[in-house]
Amino acid sequence: MTKTDDSDDTLRDSLLTPRDWIRWGASAFNAADLRFGHGSDNALDEAAHLTLFALHLPFDIADSYLDARLAPSERMAVLALLRRRLAERRPAPYLTGEAWFAGLPFDVDERVIIPRSPIAEMIEDGFQPWLGEREPARILDLCAGCGAIAIACAYAFPDAEVMATELDEGALAVAERNIERHEMAPRLSLRRADLFDGLDGERFDLIVTNPPYVSTEEWRGLPDEYRHEPEFAFTGGEDGLGLVARLLAAAPDHLTEDGLLVLEVGNTAFEMEARWPDLPVAWVDLERGGIGVGVIEAEDLSAWLESGGLRPARGTGT
Protein backbone atom coordinates (compact mmCIF):
# COMPACT_ATOMS: atom_id res chain seq x y z
CA MET A 1 0.00 0.00 0.00
CA THR A 2 1.31 3.43 -0.89
CA LYS A 3 2.04 5.56 2.17
CA THR A 4 -0.34 8.47 2.62
CA ASP A 5 -1.65 10.34 5.64
CA ASP A 6 -4.20 7.53 5.89
CA SER A 7 -1.69 4.69 5.68
CA ASP A 8 -2.21 1.92 8.20
CA ASP A 9 0.94 2.85 10.15
CA THR A 10 -0.08 6.49 10.39
CA LEU A 11 -3.58 5.63 11.50
CA ARG A 12 -2.40 3.19 14.17
CA ASP A 13 -0.03 5.83 15.56
CA SER A 14 -2.45 8.75 15.50
CA LEU A 15 -5.86 7.26 16.37
CA LEU A 16 -5.53 6.25 20.00
CA THR A 17 -9.03 5.97 21.46
CA PRO A 18 -12.33 4.38 20.43
CA ARG A 19 -13.70 7.87 19.84
CA ASP A 20 -10.84 8.59 17.43
CA TRP A 21 -11.59 5.44 15.46
CA ILE A 22 -15.33 6.06 15.36
CA ARG A 23 -14.78 9.55 14.01
CA TRP A 24 -12.29 8.37 11.38
CA GLY A 25 -14.47 5.43 10.38
CA ALA A 26 -17.53 7.64 9.91
CA SER A 27 -15.55 10.09 7.77
CA ALA A 28 -14.04 7.31 5.68
CA PHE A 29 -17.44 5.63 5.19
CA ASN A 30 -19.01 8.88 4.02
CA ALA A 31 -16.10 9.64 1.70
CA ALA A 32 -16.44 6.18 0.14
CA ASP A 33 -20.22 6.67 -0.27
CA LEU A 34 -21.03 3.47 1.60
CA ARG A 35 -24.70 2.62 1.94
CA PHE A 36 -26.43 1.65 5.15
CA GLY A 37 -29.68 0.06 6.23
CA HIS A 38 -28.61 -3.25 7.78
CA GLY A 39 -28.84 -2.28 11.42
CA SER A 40 -27.77 1.35 11.20
CA ASP A 41 -28.82 4.10 8.84
CA ASN A 42 -25.77 6.37 9.00
CA ALA A 43 -21.97 6.26 8.90
CA LEU A 44 -21.41 7.36 12.51
CA ASP A 45 -23.56 4.63 14.07
CA GLU A 46 -22.04 1.99 11.79
CA ALA A 47 -18.49 3.06 12.64
CA ALA A 48 -19.34 2.97 16.34
CA HIS A 49 -20.90 -0.48 16.04
CA LEU A 50 -17.90 -1.96 14.23
CA THR A 51 -15.35 -0.28 16.47
CA LEU A 52 -16.96 -1.55 19.67
CA PHE A 53 -17.45 -5.02 18.18
CA ALA A 54 -13.76 -5.23 17.29
CA LEU A 55 -12.91 -4.24 20.88
CA HIS A 56 -15.31 -6.80 22.41
CA LEU A 57 -17.13 -3.99 24.17
CA PRO A 58 -20.90 -3.62 24.72
CA PHE A 59 -22.72 -1.25 22.43
CA ASP A 60 -24.23 0.62 25.38
CA ILE A 61 -20.85 1.32 26.97
CA ALA A 62 -20.50 4.43 29.13
CA ASP A 63 -19.36 7.43 27.11
CA SER A 64 -16.26 7.91 29.27
CA TYR A 65 -14.74 4.65 28.01
CA LEU A 66 -14.62 6.04 24.49
CA ASP A 67 -11.63 8.15 25.54
CA ALA A 68 -9.59 5.24 26.91
CA ARG A 69 -6.29 4.64 25.10
CA LEU A 70 -6.17 1.42 23.12
CA ALA A 71 -3.35 -1.09 22.99
CA PRO A 72 -1.58 -1.43 19.61
CA SER A 73 -3.20 -4.82 19.01
CA GLU A 74 -6.64 -3.34 19.65
CA ARG A 75 -6.01 -0.53 17.17
CA MET A 76 -4.98 -3.10 14.56
CA ALA A 77 -8.19 -5.07 15.15
CA VAL A 78 -10.39 -2.00 14.73
CA LEU A 79 -8.52 -0.87 11.62
CA ALA A 80 -8.78 -4.29 10.00
CA LEU A 81 -12.56 -4.40 10.47
CA LEU A 82 -13.14 -0.85 9.26
CA ARG A 83 -10.90 -1.49 6.25
CA ARG A 84 -12.95 -4.58 5.37
CA ARG A 85 -16.16 -2.57 5.44
CA LEU A 86 -14.59 -0.03 3.08
CA ALA A 87 -12.98 -2.51 0.69
CA GLU A 88 -15.71 -5.14 0.45
CA ARG A 89 -18.82 -2.93 0.83
CA ARG A 90 -20.24 -5.85 2.75
CA PRO A 91 -23.03 -5.13 5.26
CA ALA A 92 -21.73 -4.84 8.80
CA PRO A 93 -23.70 -7.85 10.14
CA TYR A 94 -21.95 -10.11 7.64
CA LEU A 95 -18.61 -8.87 9.00
CA THR A 96 -19.59 -9.44 12.62
CA GLY A 97 -21.76 -12.53 12.07
CA GLU A 98 -24.55 -11.02 14.12
CA ALA A 99 -27.62 -8.85 13.57
CA TRP A 100 -30.08 -7.36 16.04
CA PHE A 101 -33.84 -7.52 15.54
CA ALA A 102 -36.56 -6.50 18.00
CA GLY A 103 -33.84 -6.05 20.61
CA LEU A 104 -32.53 -9.60 20.15
CA PRO A 105 -29.25 -10.89 18.67
CA PHE A 106 -29.24 -13.34 15.76
CA ASP A 107 -26.57 -15.27 13.92
CA VAL A 108 -26.38 -14.28 10.25
CA ASP A 109 -24.25 -15.06 7.25
CA GLU A 110 -24.65 -14.66 3.50
CA ARG A 111 -27.10 -17.54 3.28
CA VAL A 112 -29.81 -15.28 4.76
CA ILE A 113 -31.08 -11.77 4.27
CA ILE A 114 -30.16 -9.55 7.22
CA PRO A 115 -33.26 -9.12 9.45
CA ARG A 116 -34.41 -5.49 9.52
CA SER A 117 -38.15 -5.68 8.92
CA PRO A 118 -40.22 -2.87 10.44
CA ILE A 119 -42.49 -5.67 11.65
CA ALA A 120 -40.13 -5.69 14.65
CA GLU A 121 -41.95 -2.62 15.95
CA MET A 122 -45.28 -4.43 15.73
CA ILE A 123 -43.92 -7.49 17.53
CA GLU A 124 -42.60 -5.32 20.36
CA ASP A 125 -46.09 -3.80 20.67
CA GLY A 126 -47.77 -7.22 20.69
CA PHE A 127 -49.39 -6.45 17.31
CA GLN A 128 -51.62 -3.93 19.00
CA PRO A 129 -54.07 -2.46 18.28
CA TRP A 130 -54.55 -4.97 15.46
CA LEU A 131 -55.03 -8.08 17.59
CA GLY A 132 -57.20 -6.33 20.16
CA GLU A 133 -58.24 -8.82 22.83
CA ARG A 134 -57.24 -11.82 20.72
CA GLU A 135 -54.39 -13.91 22.13
CA PRO A 136 -52.83 -16.04 19.36
CA ALA A 137 -52.37 -19.67 20.28
CA ARG A 138 -50.63 -20.60 17.00
CA ILE A 139 -48.35 -18.28 15.01
CA LEU A 140 -46.72 -18.87 11.62
CA ASP A 141 -43.67 -17.05 10.29
CA LEU A 142 -43.79 -17.64 6.55
CA CYS A 143 -40.53 -17.24 4.58
CA ALA A 144 -38.62 -17.18 7.84
CA GLY A 145 -35.05 -16.56 6.69
CA CYS A 146 -32.83 -16.62 9.77
CA GLY A 147 -35.88 -17.10 12.01
CA ALA A 148 -35.80 -13.63 13.59
CA ILE A 149 -39.53 -12.88 13.24
CA ALA A 150 -40.54 -16.31 14.55
CA ILE A 151 -38.20 -16.13 17.53
CA ALA A 152 -39.23 -12.56 18.38
CA CYS A 153 -42.88 -13.64 18.23
CA ALA A 154 -42.12 -16.55 20.55
CA TYR A 155 -40.68 -14.12 23.08
CA ALA A 156 -43.66 -11.76 22.69
CA PHE A 157 -46.24 -14.55 23.09
CA PRO A 158 -44.70 -17.05 25.52
CA ASP A 159 -47.83 -19.24 25.62
CA ALA A 160 -48.13 -19.56 21.84
CA GLU A 161 -46.98 -22.38 19.60
CA VAL A 162 -44.83 -20.90 16.82
CA MET A 163 -43.95 -22.42 13.46
CA ALA A 164 -41.41 -21.08 10.96
CA THR A 165 -41.23 -22.19 7.33
CA GLU A 166 -38.49 -21.54 4.79
CA LEU A 167 -37.69 -23.09 1.42
CA ASP A 168 -33.93 -22.53 1.19
CA GLU A 169 -31.80 -25.13 2.96
CA GLY A 170 -29.00 -22.70 3.78
CA ALA A 171 -31.42 -20.31 5.44
CA LEU A 172 -32.97 -23.21 7.34
CA ALA A 173 -29.56 -24.10 8.77
CA VAL A 174 -29.08 -20.55 10.04
CA ALA A 175 -32.61 -20.47 11.47
CA GLU A 176 -31.97 -23.74 13.29
CA ARG A 177 -28.83 -22.24 14.81
CA ASN A 178 -30.82 -19.25 16.05
CA ILE A 179 -33.54 -21.43 17.53
CA GLU A 180 -30.83 -23.25 19.47
CA ARG A 181 -29.20 -19.97 20.48
CA HIS A 182 -32.46 -18.70 21.97
CA GLU A 183 -33.43 -22.10 23.38
CA MET A 184 -36.83 -21.99 21.67
CA ALA A 185 -37.18 -25.69 20.81
CA PRO A 186 -39.58 -27.47 21.04
CA ARG A 187 -42.09 -24.59 21.28
CA LEU A 188 -40.83 -23.20 17.98
CA SER A 189 -40.85 -25.71 15.11
CA LEU A 190 -39.07 -25.25 11.80
CA ARG A 191 -40.15 -26.77 8.49
CA ARG A 192 -38.90 -26.66 4.91
CA ALA A 193 -41.76 -25.45 2.74
CA ASP A 194 -42.54 -23.39 -0.34
CA LEU A 195 -45.07 -21.00 1.20
CA PHE A 196 -47.86 -23.25 2.55
CA ASP A 197 -46.81 -26.48 0.83
CA GLY A 198 -47.05 -29.39 3.24
CA LEU A 199 -49.18 -27.44 5.73
CA ASP A 200 -52.52 -28.94 4.68
CA GLY A 201 -54.99 -28.70 7.55
CA GLU A 202 -52.72 -26.42 9.59
CA ARG A 203 -54.39 -23.19 10.77
CA PHE A 204 -52.96 -20.26 12.66
CA ASP A 205 -54.35 -17.33 14.60
CA LEU A 206 -51.58 -15.07 13.33
CA ILE A 207 -49.52 -15.36 10.14
CA VAL A 208 -46.57 -12.97 9.85
CA THR A 209 -44.60 -12.86 6.64
CA ASN A 210 -41.86 -10.85 4.97
CA PRO A 211 -41.73 -12.68 1.62
CA PRO A 212 -39.56 -11.86 -1.39
CA TYR A 213 -41.33 -8.87 -2.93
CA VAL A 214 -38.73 -6.75 -4.75
CA SER A 215 -39.27 -6.32 -8.48
CA THR A 216 -36.57 -7.41 -10.91
CA GLU A 217 -35.88 -3.80 -11.88
CA GLU A 218 -35.59 -2.65 -8.27
CA TRP A 219 -33.22 -5.52 -7.46
CA ARG A 220 -30.90 -4.54 -10.31
CA GLY A 221 -30.69 -0.99 -8.97
CA LEU A 222 -29.83 -1.83 -5.38
CA PRO A 223 -26.50 -0.60 -3.91
CA ASP A 224 -23.57 -3.00 -3.61
CA GLU A 225 -24.23 -3.68 0.07
CA TYR A 226 -27.61 -5.23 -0.73
CA ARG A 227 -26.21 -7.31 -3.57
CA HIS A 228 -24.23 -9.35 -1.02
CA GLU A 229 -27.55 -10.70 0.27
CA PRO A 230 -29.17 -13.73 -1.41
CA GLU A 231 -31.22 -12.68 -4.43
CA PHE A 232 -33.87 -15.36 -3.78
CA ALA A 233 -34.74 -13.59 -0.51
CA PHE A 234 -35.48 -10.35 -2.37
CA THR A 235 -37.06 -10.93 -5.73
CA GLY A 236 -40.71 -11.75 -6.25
CA GLY A 237 -40.95 -11.70 -10.03
CA GLU A 238 -41.01 -8.97 -12.61
CA ASP A 239 -43.31 -6.74 -10.56
CA GLY A 240 -42.57 -8.25 -7.14
CA LEU A 241 -46.06 -9.71 -6.73
CA GLY A 242 -45.54 -13.32 -7.81
CA LEU A 243 -45.19 -14.85 -4.36
CA VAL A 244 -47.51 -12.28 -2.79
CA ALA A 245 -50.35 -13.33 -5.12
CA ARG A 246 -49.86 -17.00 -4.24
CA LEU A 247 -49.70 -16.15 -0.55
CA LEU A 248 -52.92 -14.14 -0.57
CA ALA A 249 -54.75 -16.87 -2.46
CA ALA A 250 -53.75 -19.60 0.00
CA ALA A 251 -53.73 -17.72 3.33
CA PRO A 252 -57.45 -18.16 4.18
CA ASP A 253 -56.98 -21.93 4.18
CA HIS A 254 -54.41 -21.55 6.93
CA LEU A 255 -55.94 -18.81 9.08
CA THR A 256 -58.44 -19.41 11.83
CA GLU A 257 -61.85 -17.82 11.40
CA ASP A 258 -60.81 -14.66 13.25
CA GLY A 259 -57.13 -14.90 12.28
CA LEU A 260 -54.89 -12.04 11.20
CA LEU A 261 -52.37 -11.80 8.35
CA VAL A 262 -49.43 -9.39 8.73
CA LEU A 263 -47.63 -8.87 5.43
CA GLU A 264 -44.61 -6.76 4.48
CA VAL A 265 -44.19 -5.71 0.84
CA GLY A 266 -42.16 -2.49 1.11
CA ASN A 267 -42.30 -0.26 -1.97
CA THR A 268 -44.26 -2.96 -3.79
CA ALA A 269 -47.27 -1.73 -1.80
CA PHE A 270 -47.81 0.86 -4.55
CA GLU A 271 -47.96 -1.90 -7.17
CA MET A 272 -50.36 -3.86 -4.94
CA GLU A 273 -52.69 -0.90 -4.62
CA ALA A 274 -52.67 -0.37 -8.38
CA ARG A 275 -53.26 -4.06 -9.12
CA TRP A 276 -55.77 -4.82 -6.38
CA PRO A 277 -57.27 -1.46 -5.33
CA ASP A 278 -60.07 -3.10 -3.32
CA LEU A 279 -57.83 -5.47 -1.35
CA PRO A 280 -59.01 -5.14 2.29
CA VAL A 281 -55.61 -4.27 3.70
CA ALA A 282 -54.87 -1.68 6.38
CA TRP A 283 -51.42 -0.17 5.97
CA VAL A 284 -49.63 0.32 9.28
CA ASP A 285 -48.29 3.73 10.29
CA LEU A 286 -44.93 2.81 11.85
CA GLU A 287 -43.37 5.17 14.39
CA ARG A 288 -39.82 4.13 13.56
CA GLY A 289 -40.27 4.38 9.81
CA GLY A 290 -40.76 1.91 7.02
CA ILE A 291 -43.58 1.44 4.55
CA GLY A 292 -45.56 -1.38 3.05
CA VAL A 293 -46.56 -3.36 6.14
CA GLY A 294 -50.23 -4.28 6.01
CA VAL A 295 -52.71 -6.23 8.10
CA ILE A 296 -55.65 -8.19 6.71
CA GLU A 297 -58.40 -9.93 8.66
CA ALA A 298 -59.04 -13.54 7.64
CA GLU A 299 -62.74 -13.03 7.03
CA ASP A 300 -62.12 -9.94 4.90
CA LEU A 301 -59.51 -11.71 2.79
CA SER A 302 -61.82 -14.71 2.26
CA ALA A 303 -64.69 -12.47 1.17
CA TRP A 304 -62.45 -10.56 -1.22
CA LEU A 305 -61.15 -13.74 -2.83
CA GLU A 306 -64.66 -15.16 -3.15
CA SER A 307 -65.73 -11.99 -4.95
CA GLY A 308 -62.96 -12.53 -7.52
CA GLY A 309 -60.72 -9.80 -6.14
CA LEU A 310 -57.41 -11.51 -6.88
CA ARG A 311 -56.37 -10.98 -10.45
CA PRO A 312 -53.18 -12.39 -11.99
CA ALA A 313 -50.16 -10.18 -11.38
CA ARG A 314 -48.57 -8.95 -14.59
CA GLY A 315 -45.58 -11.01 -15.74
CA THR A 316 -45.81 -13.62 -12.96
CA GLY A 317 -47.82 -16.24 -14.78
CA THR A 318 -50.01 -16.69 -11.71
Topology:
Layout: H1 8-14, H2 18-31, H3 43-54, H4 72-88, H5 92-96, E1 98-101, E2 104-107, H6 119-124, E3 138-142, H7 148-156, E4 161-166, H8 169-181, E5 188-192, E6 204-209, H9 216-220, H10 224-227, H11 242-250, E7 255-264, H12 269-275, E8 282-283, E9 293-297, H13 298-306
Parallel strand pairs: 3-4, 3-6, 4-5, 6-7
Antiparallel strand pairs: 1-2, 7-9, 8-9
Helix pairs in contact: 1-4, 2-3, 2-4, 3-4
Features of this protein?
elongated, Rossmann fold, two-stranded antiparallel sheet, 7-stranded mixed beta sheet, 2 domains, alpha/beta, about 325 residues
Overall description:
This protein is of the alpha/beta class. The chain has 2 domains: 8-90, no CATH class; 98-306, 3-Layer(aba) Sandwich (Rossmann fold), CATH 3.40.50. 37% of the residues lie in helices and 15% in strands. It has 13 helices and 9 strands. The chain has helices spanning 8-14, 18-31, 43-54, 72-88, 92-96, 119-124, 148-156, 169-181, 216-220, 224-227, 242-250, 269-275, 298-306, and strands spanning 98-101, 104-107, 138-142, 161-166, 188-192, 204-209, 255-264, 282-283, 293-297. Strands 5-4-3-6-7-9-8 form a 7-stranded mixed β-sheet. A two-stranded antiparallel ribbon has the order 1-2. α7 links the parallel β3 (138-142) and β4. α2 runs parallel beside α4 (72-88) and α3 (43-54) crosses α4. The longest helix is centred in the first third of the chain and has 17 residues, at 72-88. The radius of gyration is 22 Å and the shape is elongated. Residues 313-318 have low confidence and may be disordered.
